Amino acid sequence: MVDSRTVIFFVAVAAFLVVMATIAVRSYRRASKSSNRDWEHLLKRLQLVDRGSIAEVALDIIDESGQQRKDEGSATLEPEQIWKLVGGLKGLEVLKANCEVLIDLASYVQQWYPEALVVAEQLRLGAREIEFHVDRLKGAERTGKLKSAFAMYAQPAVGKYYLMTRRLLALYEERNLPMLADLQKAL
Amino acid sequence: MHLTGLDLLFWAAGFGAHLTLLSVLLIRRRFRQFPIFTAFIFTNVLRTIVLYFTESLGTKATYFYTFWLLGILDMLLQISVVYEMYALTFRPLGAWARDTRPAFKWLAMSTVGVAAALTWLAAPHARLWMQVVVIKGNFFSSVLMTELFVGMIALSVKAGLPWKTHVARISQGLGLYSAVDVLVEAGHSYFGVGHGVHIYTTLSQVRMSAYLVCVGYWIVMLWREAPAAREMPERVLGQLNELKSAVDSDLERIRVRK
User: Which of B247, B249, B254 to mutate to test the interface with A (most CBs of A within 10 A)?
Assistant: First the structure.
């Protein structure tokens, strides 16, 4: 006769192994998704955003060159307006997803081009930090403190995204790369 | 202690497999990259020799204590191998990546917590307290090792830190073996030694078979060379540098606004 403690033990062991297998399989899938692709394919994963809205939010605090605006007309957008223009948390999710692309690009470089390890690691750390800021906003949303946190983190994060994508496009344009048209659509 | 033909076969196979793997590590000079893993394999070779002579020449008590002392050493070396794999993955520039440090604390606490909780649930059928300690100890270590390797996979993917080819192969082997060992040790706990030594021995043979497969996998994978690094096209290097400067300057702005 099997006692209840033994049943609980085996159920717990089975649950443990299922959880471990799930985490491992999901992680492997994500890792192979990044490592099996080439550089251009990774760039293609950048997600579509509303360029006009992103620019409006970003240019409220920075100028086209990326410098912080200090004139009287700067930082005039209210948190509610920013929320609407960014597309709320969904919009920030896109920003986070694009940071994940940066992390994958860094990982790809570390894996295949060890001579660029230092640059890739710095890029990876930077993208991880931006991702962390977006996660803070998501955390604030869960605890009901989104309004105050949004004003503090969302606009600079959007500004960062704006600059990052502009520079990426400029880079492609400047070098006359064939991916430019696709990138313009995506960004 | 009476050893059957199958016991001797496992013994010889384990010794041969470890010796072959040790030769691979030395011939291919992998010991430079994996000194702890090499020490772990070397200790296993030594352990088999010591136990063989202790069994032949010593008393039952001497064999018992030697077996378990070497078992503890084996466990400590396995944990050290985990450390070596973590260090090779999460220290790309020679220091622990700063974004992964908080996750390590969380991982250490949660893995030990889960392993302890599962071990507490286990109620081995055994006559002596020492047998209970041994069964529970083995179960705890197998759960812990499984968690540490799965945690390593998840954390490296999340952080975007790729595994070096041979690190991945060693980790996969030890991680999968640990998962099989969780099932074997759960069986040991359920059947204990109360139903006779037969089931306990059969389960141990299943575990040893899984381990032999794992060592075989290491022999093949560590003999093979890792894929050669590619030459970075100037275009990609340029893009990378541009992206890095963009992220750096944007981060500065975010930090200022914080």
Answer: B247
